[in-house]
Each structure stands twice: as structure tokens, then as C-alpha cells.
């Protein structure tokens, strides 16, 4: 007498194959693209970004950065009070060597090209036009010193700088800052920062249009 067979093993395997293919595809996305679980997905996502390449216009990226605020990673956010440093500054690094393409380049690497730095009521923002690299954090001004903190690239590090204006340019001198193996200090102090003149609000016109603008301010 033949024993009855409840099902064909071959057909069961054939039916479950699509299921396993879908599972493997799902985990493939996690491993290769980090598309479903980006950095900080299980907490506050850092506002700093290290893109592999710049696909959007620098104006759009800079405008979006100006609308972001830091996360209080290690210290409360300062009061939104205007400081003596408030404003936007730029510098043009003459370094000619193009940035080396890399998936995780060193943060704050002083690459050539236009850099922008913005201080705004306790929030600092920095942006490199060529690579699209940017970051932001908190700052406090204490007389002739400025303290930087809540930077997602160096959460446990507080940078301290002396600041002064010389010939209208912002000069930063490092007192203490080990962020990004010291690269933040190198970047911020390597060259003077030229202020971007704010538009005049008189009569609703920009009376600074006829003045030469520093590179990166237009």
C-alpha cells in the first residue's frame, strides 16, 4: 500500500523562494545603502551631512542649512540672543588640489574653494561649496572668546577660540579644539573670514548692490 503524501516538497520550496528573495533584498538595502536606517535613525539625526557628491545647487543647500537648528547633544541650546559675531562670512581657500572622492572624508578637511561661516544668535553653521559638506552647532560669546559645542561631528569636544576683527575681517585663533583630530581648528583659523554685507532695509532696496561682494556672498 502506498503512503499518501500531504504535499510536494518541491512545490513548497518553489512557493517560499519569492519570500526569501524579498527578505534578502530588504537586508541588501540596509547593508549597501543605509537607505532605511541612516545615521541617527534611532535617535536625533545629526544635522551635519557628508555627501558623496553634490547633486543640488549650492544656493539650495545653503538655504536649507540656514533653516536648521542644532540638537542639544551635550549642552542646552543657548538663548536666541544676538551677539557681536552674528553675520555671514566667507573665505576662498586657494588650494588647487581637487578633493579626493571618498565615502567618508575627514570632517572639516580644509579643501580649496569657497567656505561659508554663519553665526546667528547662538547657532553656527559652516558650508563648503564644492563638496557640499556642512555642519552646525551652538556657540557662546564670552568677551573676546567664542565657544563651539553641540557639533554632531565631535559631540564630546568643545572648541574655544579668541576672535577679533582686523581690516574688517574676522580672525579666529584657537585656544583649544581637538574636533576632527584638530582639523576644525585648522579650517577655522587658516584664513581670515570676510564679512558678507547685509542688505540695507531702507526703502526696501539693497543699497549694497554696487559694492564688491566677497566670493561666496552672492
Can you describe this structure?
With 218 residues, this protein is an alpha+beta fold. It has 2 domains: 30 residues; 147 residues, no CATH class. It is built from 3 helices and 8 strands, in the order H-H-E-E-E-E-E-E-E-H-E. The chain has an 8-stranded antiparallel sheet with strand order 7-6-5-4-3-2-1-8. A hairpin with a 5-residue loop joins strand 3 and strand 4.
Q: What's the quick description here?
A:
This protein has helices at 9-33, 58-66, 183-189; strands at residues 87-93, 113-120, 123-128, 134-142, 145-149, 159-166, 169-176, 194-195. The chain has 218 residues and is of the alpha+beta class.
Protein topology:
Blueprint: H1 9-33, H2 58-66, E1 87-93, E2 113-120, E3 123-128, E4 134-142, E5 145-149, E6 159-166, E7 169-176, H3 183-189, E8 194-195
Major pleated sheet: 8 strands, antiparallel
Distance between the termini: 90 Å
Radius of gyration: 25 Å
Shape: globular
What is the mean predicted local confidence, pLDDT? 77
> Helix content range of the residues, please?
10-25%
Report the β-strand fraction as a percent range: 15-25%
Number of domains: 2
Low-confidence stretches: 1-6, 9-55, 200-208
Which class of secondary structure composition applies to the elements?
alpha+beta
Strand element count: 8
The H/E string reads: HHEEEEEEEHE
- Side-by-side strand order of the widest sheet: 7-6-5-4-3-2-1-8
Number of helices: 3
Defining traits:
218 residues, 3 helices, alpha+beta, disordered N terminus, 8-stranded antiparallel β-sheet, globular, 2 domains
Amino acid at each position: 500500500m502506498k503512503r499518501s503524501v500531504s504535499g510536494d516538497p518541491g512545490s513548497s520550496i518553489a512557493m517560499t523562494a519569492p519570500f526569501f528573495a524579498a527578505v534578502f533584498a530588504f537586508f541588501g538595502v540596509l547593508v549597501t545603502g543605509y537607505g532605511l536606517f541612516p545615521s541617527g535613525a534611532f535617535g536625533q539625526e545629526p544635522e551635519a551631512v557628508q555627501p558623496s557628491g553634490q547633486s543640488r545647487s549650492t544656493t539650495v543647500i545653503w538655504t536649507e542649512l540656514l533653516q536648521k537648528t542644532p540638537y542639544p547633544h551635550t549642552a542646552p541650546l543657548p538663548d536666541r540672543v544676538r551677539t557681536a559675531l552674528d553675520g555671514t562670512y566667507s573665505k576662498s581657500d586657494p588650494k588647487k588640489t581637487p578633493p579626493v572622492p571618498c565615502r567618508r572624508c575627514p570632517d572639516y578637511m580644509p579643501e580649496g574653494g569657497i567656505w561659508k561661516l554663519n553665526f546667528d544668535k547662538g547657532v553656527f553653521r559652516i558650508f563648503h561649496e564644492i563638496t557640499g559638506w556642512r555642519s552646525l552647532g551652538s556657540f557662546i560669546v564670552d568677551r573676546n572668546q567664542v565657544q563651539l559645542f553641540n557639533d554632531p561631528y565631535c559631540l564630546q569636544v568643545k572648541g574655544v577660540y579668541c576672535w577679533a576683527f582686523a581690516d574688517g575681517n574676522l580672525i579666529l585663533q584657537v585656544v583649544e579644539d581637538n574636533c576632527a583630530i584638530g582639523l576644525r581648528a585648522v579650517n577655522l583659523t587658516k584664513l581670515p573670514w570676510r564679512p558678507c554685507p547685509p542688505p540695507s532695509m531702507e526703502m526696501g532696496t539693497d543699497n549694497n548692490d554696487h559694492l564688491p561682494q566677497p566670493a561666496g556672498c552672492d
